[in-house]
């Protein structure tokens, strides 16, 4: 006996204002030549120490996820709880040293939607 | 620390996510209208679970995406000339957008298919141009950015009118504006596209959208119920969870982390199932809504035959530096210029639509 098809969905619209639980940042760590590129664990440790330096122990306890990491380019996608975005971004901006060598974090793209980081029209290169 | 500073440290940039659900074959369904209203798209991607090989009809739809053009150093007054208007604007849908201009820093121009030319310019350019416009909605108390809209198909814009002469004088003599412009022209007619020959005196390139295919094996997919946008605990996932999961898949994020992991605690929303394989396709370039509508229709027809998949998704990213998002709503770049939408098409042709915009955007229609 054929199973009855569920009824067609009725129209519904919901608008969620500033409701994203997390914010995402695509970052790249610029390092001088000759410095060994950090592994993913070292990268995460660097982020935590940047938070500790600027925001103390409470800042260091801010849950940050390294969703992806590419060792070749030292770039990563970070996820942070929305209320912690300012703390994380300010900590990354003010981090100046890695293994006693000058370094800089560049925030390439940020969004409350992870899907938005999948495409960046500013990176569109046409021959 | 005073209370206002504490509040600022926890501040979140404003953003909107509009979630709609409906049925694609309903006579009053507006799902296609949202695609039509979003003029400038730089990336179209779709994901089909339980699919190893793309059906021929979808392959040919993608191959038929047509060409778009990049014209270098084109003066904006050429888009206002009546030869151009009669040859392209009035005879089909003409889309144009400046390439490599930043909406928050540089001057930008865009031509919508309804014949409206939009110039988003800084204060100095606006004052030098001397054309009627209005301050940008997102410019703050001191207007540093202005938007000028010129309706090229307006009856009062005929070749000898005062309006036309003034616009031409402003753009040709007073303050010439030159950009690299992405152009696309859609027409329903048998004749060949004449864009290349019209701009033969300029540096013009015809480009085809870049297409990439890939397959993922053993992918964890959330379980969805088309009637439950908010999800049901233990039964189905919500639309926000799906939106985040889709972002994770497209960014190649690992979906399987333990909550005690040092690096990442992200995992696929529950409940989920593991599909043996999933087909992913990405198309990048200057893509017009006409082609996206055709692709959407073919994806709806995918379920015309029995398939293992319960749903598939179609994601479209807009240009971060376009002066408009949906219809003629002003779009800006605050901390991000996101204006994207995503369809989830279910087996029974129910659909979910998520439209996401950032701080400097109106609510999508």
Automatic annotation (TrEMBL), chain B:
Identify the Pfam families for this entry: Ribonuc_P_40
Species source reads: Dryobates pubescens
Q: Name one GO cellular component term.
A: multimeric ribonuclease P complex
Specify the taxonomic lineage: Eukaryota, Metazoa, Chordata, Craniata, Vertebrata
From the Swiss-Prot or TrEMBL record, what is one GO molecular function term?
A: ribonuclease P activity
Q: In its UniProt record, which GO terms are filed under biological process?
A: endonucleolytic cleavage in ITS1 to separate SSU-rRNA from 5.8S rRNA and LSU-rRNA from tricistronic rRNA transcript (SSU-rRNA, 5.8S rRNA, LSU-rRNA); tRNA 5'-leader removal
Q: What is this protein called?
A: Ribonuclease P protein subunit p40
List the InterPro entries: RNase_P_Rpp40 (IPR013893)
């Amino acid at each position: 006996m054929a199973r009855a098809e569920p009824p067609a969905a009725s129209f519904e619209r919901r608008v969620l204002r500033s409701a994203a639980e997390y914010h995402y940042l695509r970052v790249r760590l610029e390092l001088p030549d000759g410095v060994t590129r950090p592994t993913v664990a070292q990268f995460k440790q660097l982020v935590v120490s940047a938070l500790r330096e600027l925001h103390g122990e409470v800042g260091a306890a801010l849950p940050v996820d390294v969703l992806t990491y590419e060792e070749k380019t030292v770039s990563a996608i970070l996820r942070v709880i929305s209320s912690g975005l300012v703390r994380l971004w300010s900590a990354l901006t003010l981090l100046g040293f890695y293994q006693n060598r000058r370094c800089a974090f560049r925030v390439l793209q940020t969004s409350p939607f992870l899907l938005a980081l999948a495409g960046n029209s500013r990176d569109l290169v046409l021959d | 620390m005073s209370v206002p500073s504490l509040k600022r440290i926890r501040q979140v940039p404003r953003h909107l996510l509009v979630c709609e659900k409906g049925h694609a074959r309903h006579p009053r369904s507006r799902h296609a209208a949202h695609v039509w209203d979003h003029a400038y798209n730089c990336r179209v991607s779709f994901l089909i679970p339980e699919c190893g090989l793309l059906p021929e009809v979808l392959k040919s739809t993608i191959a038929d995406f047509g060409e778009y053009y990049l014209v270098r150093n084109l003066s904006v007054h050429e888009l206002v000339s009546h030869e151009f208007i009669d040859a392209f604007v009035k005879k089909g849908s003409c889309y144009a957008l400046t390439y490599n201009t930043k909406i928050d820093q540089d001057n930008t121009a865009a031509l919508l298919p309804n014949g409206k030319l939009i110039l988003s310019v800084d204060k100095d350019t606006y004052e030098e141009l001397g054309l009627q416009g209005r301050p940008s909605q997102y410019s703050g108390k001191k207007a540093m950015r202005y938007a000028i809209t010129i309706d090229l198909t307006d009856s009062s814009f005929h070749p000898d009118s005062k309006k036309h002469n003034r616009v031409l004088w402003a753009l040709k003599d007073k303050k010439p504006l030159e950009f690299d412009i992405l152009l696309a022209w859609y027409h329903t007619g048998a004749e060949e596209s004449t864009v290349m020959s019209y701009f033969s005196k300029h540096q013009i390139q015809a480009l085809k959208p870049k297409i990439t295919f890939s397959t993922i094996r053993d992918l964890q997919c959330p379980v969805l119920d088309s009637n439950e946008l908010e999800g049901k605990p233990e039964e189905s996932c919500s639309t926000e969870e799906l939106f985040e999961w889709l972002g994770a898949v497209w960014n190649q994020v690992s979906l399987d982390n333990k909550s005690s992991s040092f690096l990442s605690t992200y995992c696929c929303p529950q409940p989920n199932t593991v599909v043996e394989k999933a087909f992913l396709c990405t198309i990048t370039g200057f893509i017009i809504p006409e082609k996206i509508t055709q692709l959407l229709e073919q994806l709806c027809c995918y379920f015309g035959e029995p398939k293992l998949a319960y749903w598939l998704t179609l994601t479209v990213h807009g240009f971060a530096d376009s002066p408009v998002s949906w219809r003629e709503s002003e779009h800006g770049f605050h901390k991000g210029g996101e204006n994207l939408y995503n369809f989830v098409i279910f087996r029974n042709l129910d659909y979910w639509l998520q439209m996401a915009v950032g701080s400097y955007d109106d609510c999508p229609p």
